[in-house]
Design a protein that fits this description.
Elements: E1 12-16, H1 20-31, E2 35-39, H2 47-51, H3 58-72, E3 77-80, H4 91-97, E4 102-105, E5 111-112, E6 128-130, H5 131-140, E7 158-160, H6 164-184, H7 191-197, H8 199-205, E8 219-221, H9 239-260, E9 263-265, E10 268-276, E11 279-291, E12 294-297, E13 303-306, E14 310-312, E15 316-317, E16 326-327, E17 330-331, E18 340-342, E19 345-347, H10 350-353, H11 358-377, H12 384-401, H13 407-413
Parallel strand pairs: 1-2, 1-4, 2-3, 4-19, 6-14, 7-8, 7-14, 8-9
Antiparallel strand pairs: 5-15, 10-11, 11-12, 11-13, 16-17, 18-19
Helix pairs in contact: 1-3, 1-11, 5-6
C-alpha cells in the first residue's frame, strides 16, 4: 500500500515486529479503518517461527507463515522490512518525532537471559553458547550461502534450562550426534524424520542398538524437578488440576528421555564456572529443594560436572533499546493489562507477556490491539501532509533495503527455506 495515495486525514499506527503478534495487530488495525505500518527488523517477518522454532516443525511453520502472510497482505497494512528499532530508527523518533497515532512494540524477546554467574559470559564462543543463536544455526546452516555463526556438536554436552526451548536444544544436540555417527558408518538419515521416529527406532531400522554407537548424549540440568517444568500450563489451576498437570509434565519429560535419549538431572543449579586452559570446562553445581514453590539451595551439596559444550537455555528477554524504560532485564510497563509502556506506546506478544508461545501471542494481540485502536481513534487524525511525511520516511527505508512496495512480490522473491 502506498500512503502517498491517501489525500485525507487518517490514523496511522506503527508496529515494530511483523511475526505472530505484530501481524495479527496489523490486520486488526487495518480492518478498523486505520493504517498499520509494520517495521520489521528482518527481511522476512516470521521472527521466531523461522529462526527459533526448530525446523522439524515444518507443518506448523508453514501454517504460521501463511497466517502471517495473510495478515500482512491485508489492505491498509504497510510493510517496512530490514528496519531494526534502536538501530535503523530510534525509539524517540518513532514514538515522538514521526507523528504516528500510536506505536506498538511487538518485536519479541531475542536476548538470551544471561546465566547468573559472574563473569561467565567471557566464555561465549569458548565453551559456552546460548539458545537463540544455536537454534538459529540449526535452522539455517544447511542453506546455500549460509554465513552465520557455526556451532560444533560435542558428545556429553550440558544444557542449563528446563522449559520447552531447552528440550528443543537437547533434541538438536542428540539428533545431530546420532545423525553424524550414522553418517560415519555410511548411513544417511534425515534429522526431521529421525525427530518423528525417535532415535532408538531410527537405529533399529538400520540394525543398530543405542549401545553400538557409544554416544553419551547431552544432559539437561534443571533447578526444579520434572513435575515443575513449564511444559504444559493452565491459568489458575485448582489443586486437583495442578496435581494432574504435574503428572502430565513428568510424562512429557519421560517421553523426551526415552525417545531422544536425553539425560535429565533435576534439582541442581550452577553456582560457579570451571575454567581450563582459558575455556569454560564445566560448572560447580549445588543441589536444590523446593519450599512453598521457591527454589532453595542446599548447603554442602556442591558437585562438579565438566563438558566441552555448554548451552544456556534459561529464557529470553526483550533487547534493551535506548529510550525504552527498563525494570531489570524487562521493559517497565506503566500498565501491563493495557500493554501501555508510556503514553502512546504499547506492547504485545512475547515482548509484553514473556511467553514465547504462538497461541498466547496471538491471544494477547487480539486482547491488546483493540484497546490501542480505541486510544488512537480518540486522538486527532493525522493530516494529509503529516501522512506524506510518514510515507517519506517509509520510502527512504524501502530504498535502503530494496523493497518494491508490494508485500506479495517481496515475500515471493525471498521465501523461507522449505
Amino acid at each position: 500500500m502506498n500512503l502517498s495515495s491517501i489525500s485525507e486525514a487518517c490514523h496511522v499506527i506503527g508496529i515494530c515486529g511483523g511475526a505472530v503478534g505484530g501481524s495479527e495487530a496489523a490486520a486488526l488495525i487495518a480492518k478498523s479503518g486505520s493504517i498499520a505500518v509494520v517495521f520489521e527488523q528482518n527481511m522476512r517477518p516470521y521472527g521466531k517461527i523461522e529462526d527459533g522454532l526448530p525446523r522439524w516443525h515444518s507443518k506448523l511453520r508453514n501454517k504460521e507463515y501463511a497466517k502471517i502472510d495473510e495478515n500482512l497482505s491485508t489492505p491498509g497494512v504497510v510493510f517496512v522490512p530490514g528496519t531494526r528499532l534502536g538501530e535503523d530508527l530510534s525509539f524517540s523518533s518513532l514514538s515522538n518525532d514521526v507523528g504516528l497515532s500510536a506505536l506498538i512494540l511487538a518485536h519479541g524477546a531475542w536476548r538470551d537471559r544471561p546465566l547468573p554467574i559472574e563473569g561467565v559470559d567471557r566464555f561465549i564462543g569458548n565453551g559456552l553458547s546460548y539458545q537463540n543463536p544455536f537454534v538459529y544455526w540449526f535452522n539455517h546452516y544447511e542453506e546455500i550461502g549460509f554465513s552465520g555463526e557455526n556451532f560444533p556438536i560435542h558428545d556429553d554436552a550440558m544444557v542449563i534450562g528446563g522449559g520447552l526451548a531447552s528440550i528443543d536444544v537437547c533434541k538438536i544436540l542428540n539428533l545431530e550426534l546420532y545423525a553424524r555417527a550414522l553418517g560415519d558408518r555410511g548411513i544417511k538419515v534425515d534429522i526431521e524424520e529421525m525427530e518423528v521416529r525417535g532415535i532408538p527406532r531410527t537405529l533399529e531400522t538400520h540394525g543398530l542398538a543405542v549401545d553400538d554407537l557409544n554416544i553419551q548424549g547431552c544432559t539437561l540440568f534443571y533447578r526444579r524437578d520434572k513435575e515443575d517444568m513449564p511444559l504444559e500450563n493452565v491459568r489458575n489451576p485448582s489443586a486437583q488440576r495442578l496435581e494432574k498437570l504435574k503428572g502430565t509434565r513428568a510424562k512429557i519429560m519421560d517421553k523426551v528421555i526415552r525417545k531422544y535419549l536425553v539425560r535429565f538431572y533435576p534439582n541442581a543449579i550452577p553456582v560457579e564456572a570451571v575454567e581450563k586452559d582459558g575455556r569454560l570446562d564445566g560448572f560447580i553445581f549445588q543441589r536444590t529443594k523446593i519450599v512453598d514453590g521457591r527454589v532453595l539451595r542446599i548447603e554442602n551439596t556442591e558437585f562438579t560436572t565438566r563438558s566441552k559444550q555448554i548451552i544456556s537455555s534459561i529464557g529470553s528477554t526483550p533487547v534493551p533499546i535506548d529510550g525504552v524504560p527498563m525494570e531489570g532485564e524487562l521493559y517497565q510497563w506503566q500498565n501491563r493489562e493495557e500493554g501501555r509502556l508510556v503514553d502512546g506506546v504499547y506492547g504485545l506478544g512475547n515482548v509484553l507477556t514473556g511467553k514465547g508461545n504462538i497461541v498466547e501471542s496471538r491471544r494477547n494481540s487480539k486482547e491488546i490491539t483493540p484497546k490501542v485502536v480505541d486510544q488512537a481513534l480518540a486522538s486527532p487524525k493525522i493530516p494529509a501532509d503529516g501522512v506524506s511525511e510518514i510515507m517519506s520516511l517509509i520510502r527512504t527505508r524501502w530504498d535502503t533495503v530494496g523493497y518494491p512496495g508490494e508485500y506479495e512480490d517481496w515475500i515471493a522473491s525471498k521465501p523461507p527455506a522449505a
